[in-house]
Structures are given as C-alpha cells and as structure tokens.
Amino acid sequence: MNSKAYHLIIALIIISHSLKSQIASKSNITLHDIIEHINKIETDDLGKKNIKKEADILSNSSKEEFANYSLELYRDILKDNISAERIKNKIIKKFPKGILEKSIDLDHVFKDKSLTAEGIEKKYNLFISKYFDSNSNEDTYVDDDPNLKLALLFYNEKNIDKTLEYISKTKKDLKYPHKAWSLVKKLHSDKEYTLLVDILEDYNNIIQKDSVLKSTFTRYIVPMHVESLIKTGKIEEAKLIVNTHLDTEDNLDASIGLLLVNEYKNQKKYNDALSKLEEIIIKKGRNSTLKDSLRSIYVKINNDDKLFENYYSTIENTRIQKEIEYYKKDIIKESALNFNLKNLNGDSVNLSDLRGKIIVLDFWATWCGPCKKSFPAMQKLVDLYKNDNDIEFLFIDTWEKDSDYKTVVQEFITKNNYTFNVLFDDKTEKDYYISNKYGATGIPYKVIIDKNGYIRFKSAGAYLEADKTLNEISTKIEMIRNNL
Known about the structure:
This protein is α/β, with parallel strands linked by helices. The protein has helices at about 5-20, 30-40, 45-60, 65-75, 80-95, 100-110, 115-130, 145-155, 160-170, 175-190, 195-205, 210-230, 235-245, 255-265, 270-285, 290-300, 310-325, 370-385, 405-415, 435, 465-480, and strands spanning about 335, 340, 350, 360-365, 390-395, 420-425, 445-450, 455-460.
C-alpha cells in the first residue's frame, strides 16, 4: 500500500469516527433525544462547533423534521443566516410540499395587510388546493390556526357569518383553547356578548375535559361566559354556572357570583342580591369588598345600617362553621422538631422558648413567586394578631440560591415594608435542615403548631386570592385556640 492510499484510509476512518460520535448520526434516535442533547451543550466556541456538526448531519437527514431542526440551529443558535438560507432551499427541494414549504407559503397568505378578509380568504383557498386534496383535513402544524386568523379578519370587518364559519372549523382541534384565546379576548373587549355566548359554551365544554386546560383557562373563561349570558338576558343559565362553581373548591373567587349580584341590583331585585351575596360570603370567604357590597344592599332594603353588624356577624359565624368542618379533615398531631435559628437581626430564636403559643411557620424563598404573592395576605395576618400574645408568626427563609442570600432577604423585606420575624434555615453543604425535617417538598409551606408543641396543620402552595389565605390561616388558628 502506498503512502497516499494509507493516509486516505486513515482520514476516512477519522471522519467516520467523528460522524458516529455525533448523536444525530445514531440509528433509532428521536428528535426529542437530539433536542435534549443540544440543549445540554454550552454555546461557547467549542460548543458551537459541536452543534454545527450535529446540524450538518441533521441537514442531510431523510426525515424532514430533522432537517428542519438543522435550519433552526443555524438560524437561532449559530446565527449563520447564509447557511440557514442554503439549508432552507435544500429542504424545500428535497421535501416538496413538505412542512417547511407549507409554513412559508402560509406566512405569505397572511402577509399582505392591504388585502381584505375576502382577498386573504382567496389566497388561503389556493394554498389549501395546492397542499391538500378534497379528502384530507387541513393540518394543525402552526400555532396560530389560519381558520382563527380568518375568523378575526372577518370579525374586524363585521362579517359575523364568516366569523362563525371559520370558528366552527377549529373546535375539534385539541389546541383550540390556546389558538382561540386572542379572538375571545377581542370579542370580550368589544362587548360582542351574543357572539361570545355561542363561542364560550363550546370553549368551556372543551377545557373541562382536560385537566391542564381547565386549570389554565377556567378562571378567565367562566367569568366571561357568565357576563355574556347576563348581558344577553340568559339569567337562569348564568345562575346555573354560578351555583355550580360556588359549590366547588375550584380556583375561582367570588367575582363570578358578584356578576349575578350586580345584575340583580340593576333590576332592583335587592332581596335576591342580598341572598346571593350571603351565599358567596359563606361559600367563598370574607373580604372587605363583599362586606361593603352587602352593606349597601342591606341599606337599600332596611333604609339604615344600625343592625347591619349584628346581621353580618351571623353570616360570619355560619361561614366560620363551614370552614371549620372543611378543615377538620386536615388536623394532625405530630411533635414539632425543636430548632434554634438566627433572625434578620442576628438574634437566636428557639422554638421551645415559644411553648404556650400558637406558632405559624411559613417556609419561603426570595425566588419563589407564589411565596411572595402570598405575603400581602400574611402581612394582614401578622397585623391582625400583632396584639395577641398567644400567636407567633415565624417566616423561615430556605432553599435560597444566591450565595449572598441573607443580604437579598434583608433588602426584599425592607423594600416591601414587611414586619415579619424572618429566620434563616440551617444550611449544610447539600441541604437545608429545618425545612426538610418539617417535610417541605415545595414552598410556600406552612406549618401551624399548637401551644403544647404539636403540629396540627401542614399545607403547601398558595392561593391566587389573598383573602383565601387570610381566611384559611385565621380559621385554623382559631380552631387550635378553641380545641375544635
């Protein structure tokens, strides 16, 4: 074998080995695997060289989704627009009428802002005839569904028949709630209640069948639906929805009930308004807005508010009894681990020194959004019990990520004018000691300890509404105080 042939073989072996070392060249690999691998690569110079190798292999793949991902890598990570353009043309040539070509052509359909809705519809129909035969359904390969885009365009021209026609084409799409949201918001902003009633009924039926969609959209859609029903005179249907949600432990606050109360007030049906508002307070909890609204209706009926406080106290007692029955199932009795932690002032706080008091522990961190959102309600609780020597609140900062977290905590508390007694959890090299010993798997995490040193309640997470936090913690405190 001559020298040239030898060196050629060695070069081919090296190239082959290099190709095999790239994940994109492996057999039975999925796009998900490739994306996961790419996401772990640093985007420094060395990392970009490895990403480029993966992109080159992907661009030659027989699978279009792999080739399309190579285009994304060149355009968005490698910032190489010249190579991206070359690969784009290569993909279109290799996969005629494929995903990429369809997406580009669809963008062109909606690009011309000078066209009327009818003009864009004609372009869209030409697009459909090019890429789909008469027996196939239109793809759902884009986030913004073209049918909903057309629905919005026709709605802007007040062509309601066409708006409804294109909306109806999208309702079987699993992504419909996400795609239709911009149109729903537009209709609501324009007070198009007649249109909304029809759309939101289907919309609501779809989201109730999926737990993720339900948790995402219910708190926005249900109030819109109730409002639309009321505005179109469908009071009985609105009442049915309101009553359903008042009887469930969902994430809706009292606002949907107030929509009905306000309609009763508009119709001068003050007794109906009063009765519904009583029910809302009992089932969804107190707040100052509800109490003020109740007072105004009470005065309308009784001409003065002399006996209002007595009347309100009976409602409050009913609400409290209902909450007590609800929280009884959560009562536990576990010995509370003693701790000795430093607070913001550097003073030691020993749990055992607080024996004889009801103690509320709130585990939190400065990076925790739900923790911080709950703090206005927690400040209200601290203020509520500030003159009560039987109650103590301790806010245990834990799981911090910043090396100088004590300074960050001090600045956060000072900036927000919180009067919390903040303690710092004991931190080892690998762990936070007290939060783990108390069973925290997530924050915010609250623990309520009775006067004898027993844990009586534990709860994780936070409510979206501050008043729910206020009602829950205060009810649990009073349950412990009164041995209920």
